[in-house]
Here is the input.
Amino acid sequence: MKPILIAAALAAAAIAGTAATGTAAAADTLLIERVQQENRAALPARGMTMAQVEARYGEPALKLEPRGGQKAAWPVIHRWTYPAFTVYFERDKVIDAVENKASPGEIGPKPPIR
Here is the structure.
C-alpha cells in the first residue's frame, strides 16, 4: 500500500512542479501557436503565379535576391517579403508561404538571408 501512496505523491509533486515552471515558459511564444490563435488573412496558395500574388497582396516590401539556378536541376527560387509573411517561388509559381515573426523574442523561422 505504501508504494502506491509514494507513487501518487511523486506524481502530484511532478504536476505541481510543472505548474510552477509553466509560468516562466509562458513568456515564450511559439510562432505556430500565434498563427493558430490569430484570425489571419489567407497566405498565397501553392501554385499561384507571381502576377497573381502581386495583384492580390500588392507590391512586396522586399524582393530578395534569387537563389539557385546554377544547374538545370536546381531551379531559381525567388523570395518576396511582405510585413506578415514571406513567399517562396520556384521560377514564377508559389511553392510556400511562411508567417514572419511578430517580435524578436518569438520562436520560429529565422529571418530571410539578404
